[in-house]
């Protein structure tokens, strides 16, 4: 069973883009703006929240569990395995083991990261030295917070983090996860 990530237990800001048309497909991928994750994600997420808070930041979450059906919609919009996991193989998001995230400053605005969420270009890759230094610093800050908290990074998307060895968790459809995302 997946757990819901939301305040007050998790002091995060929810900006669940795939429940809106503001994503690369131009249409919602699921109806409810929920962030669901495996129970194993709770501890590392609470550590990341505490680390960020101690430095004056707050996590902004874009996507957690993504039902297998929603992964198919994404794949049809952008069938590029660098950025979108082939649904036949399965996304860590469909295992409830991945999180798309950025940092908000004290003013509640997201930090400058050089690209937006889901940019899906070489500019979204980690380790770039041709971005504004502030964006490089902010990405390094997010990387440090998330990896120190126990998450692993993905080299091609600065916003994507996952639990170690996510393949041990099963892929879930919306109905297998309780129908909570109201996939349509
Ligand atoms: Zn992701």
Give a brief description.
The chain is α+β, with helices and mostly antiparallel strands and 184 residues long. The chain contains three helices and seven strands, in the order βββαβαβαββ.
Q: C-alpha Rg, in Å?
A: 15 Å
Task: Look at the helices and sheets and give the structural class.
Answer: alpha+beta
Ligand roster: zinc ion
Share of helix, binned: 10-25%
Query: If helices are DSSP runs of H or I spanning 4 or more residues, what is the number of helices?
Result: 3
What order do the SSEs take from the amino end to the carboxyl end, as H and E?
EEEHEHEHEE
Beta percentage is 15-25%
Number of distinct beta strands: 7
Return residue spans where pLDDT drops below 50 for at least 5 consecutive residues. none
What distance lies between the first and last C-alpha atoms, to the nearest angstrom?
Answer: 21 Å
Q: For the largest beta sheet, what order do the strands appear in spatially?
A: 2-4-5-7-6
Major beta sheet summary: 5 strands, mixed
Mean model confidence by pLDDT: 96
Shape, principal axes of CA atoms:
globular
């Amino acid at each position: 069973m997946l757990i819901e990530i939301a305040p007050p237990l998790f002091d995060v800001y929810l900006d669940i883009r795939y429940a809106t048309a503001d994503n690369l497909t131009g249409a919602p991928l699921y109806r409810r703006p929920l962030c669901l994750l495996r129970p194993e994600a709770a501890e590392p997420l609470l550590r990341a929240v505490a680390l960020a808070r101690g430095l004056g930041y707050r996590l902004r979450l874009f996507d957690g569990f993504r039902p297998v059906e929603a992964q198919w919609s994404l794949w049809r919009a952008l069938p590029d395995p660098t950025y979108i996991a082939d649904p036949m193989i399965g996304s860590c998001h469909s295992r409830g083991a991945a999180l798309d995230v950025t940092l908000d400053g004290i003013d509640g605005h997201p930090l400058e990261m050089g690209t937006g969420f889901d940019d899906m270009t070489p500019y979204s890759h980690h380790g770039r030295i041709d971005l504004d230094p502030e964006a490089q610093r902010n990405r390094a800050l997010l990387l440090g917070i998330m990896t120190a908290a126990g998450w692993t990074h993905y080299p091609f998307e600065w916003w994507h983090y996952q639990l170690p060895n996510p393949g041990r968790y099963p892929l879930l459809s919306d109905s297998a996860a309780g129908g909570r995302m109201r996939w349509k």
